[in-house]
Amino acid sequence: MRVLGIETSCDETAAAVLEDGRRILSNVVASQTIHAEYGGVVPEYASREHTGAIVTIVERALADAGVEYDGIDAIAVTNRPGLVGCLLVGVSFAKALAYALDVPVVGVDHIEGHIFSSRLAEPELVLPAVCLVVSGGHTETVAIEEWGRYETLGRTRDDAGGEAFDKVGKLLGLSYPAGPEIERLAVGGDPTAHAFPRAMMESGNLDFSFSGLKTAVRYRIEDLGGVPEGDVFRDLLASFQTAVVDALVTKTMWAAEERGVPTVCLGGGVAANGVLRQRLAEEAAARGFSVVIPPKLLCTDNGAVIAAVGHSLLERGVRDDLTLSVSASREAARAGRHVS
Ligand code: KG4
Ligand code: ZN
User: Are 292 and 122 in contact (CB under 8 A)?
Assistant: First the structure.
């Protein structure tokens, strides 16, 4: 079965063709640049950019995969959570195409897409596992009991991990999204130069909080008399990055130990961060967990992971119809869902 996966929940227009739930025949991602100067995604601009890009991106995904429209057996599309105007572009396109091709359409939870990056990267992944999902909008540790059955163990009480990178980047005059830029500029910086807070580190508490860290960085910039340059700038970035990574890795290890799972895995845009990838791999290995760290292109928003969730749903007899709707939150109205 070949599934076309479509993702338009935020600022990436993405499409991919996935064969048999495993083989990625193509994975095309177009990141919108229009938001760079605003310090965050401007929803109306984002929907408009999706509308302009979606046909080109889907056709490129088909061309890269070497298949025609009639070589697609089903369409999976992100329908929650996300910016409603953005989700509507992907879902409307997916429904129209499914109708024209007379193939099933299935709505996918974006966060489940991030969880599935580990399954795509490692099809033999042993469950149960604990997955750290950390993106621009979400930060949580999830127990994967089986594919499709999850339990959230800890979540952020305020900012998401990626949001912390983006907001601190804005304070420092960097453009959106700031995560990749902070990682690049922090290279060579001293991560111990500034003792930034790690919130809620009392044992047993699996939740995260990053807003205090952001405020601490703001005060430090004021103490320094403005945004510093050179080594002082690098040290500030490295210290901030390490504070985020420390909290993420520590809580993930606690969650995995509490659940007694054999495997730890990682997903979401911040999972592209090299320091996080390395620290998680080291700490997991030190505790005897096996670890799955998907390639970066599968961590940031993309259509392949959406197609993978769609394939898994269809395999279990789940499909939607043309009444499929969108939702800003994860608890979507399930209009049109059929389970056979
Ligand atoms: O999952 P994603 O692509 O979109 C959402 O679902 O939000 O995640 C985007 C987030 C942004 O906040 C971005 O700054 C962050 O992931 N990000 C990074 C890196 N690459 C992307 N944060 C830190 N280091 C990176 N290398
Ligand atoms: Zn995402």
Answer: yes
Tokens for 229, please give them: 């340059």
Ligand 1, atom 8, residue with closest C-alpha: 269
Same fold, 2-113+299-339 and 127-261: yes
Q: Comparing C-alpha atoms, which of 22, 234, 261 is closest to residue 141?
A: 261
Residue 246 has pLDDT above 60, yes or no: yes
Q: To which H or E segment does residue 219 belong?
A: helix 211-223
Both tokens of 23, joined, read 């083989």
Ligand 1 centre and the CA of 275: distance in Å?
A: 13
Highest CATH level, class, for 127-261: alpha beta
Mean pLDDT of 46-68: 98
Q: What mean pLDDT is predicted for residues 281-304?
A: 98
Report whether pLDDT(333) > 60.
no
Pocket of ligand 1 (CB under 6 A): 10, 135-137, 162, 165-166, 177-180, 183, 268-270, 272-273, 300-301
Count of helices and strands (H, E) across the chain: 10, 12
CATH architecture, domain 2-113+299-339: 2-Layer Sandwich (3.30)
Ligand 1 site-directed mutation target among 27, 78, 138, 165, most atoms within 8 Å of CB: 165
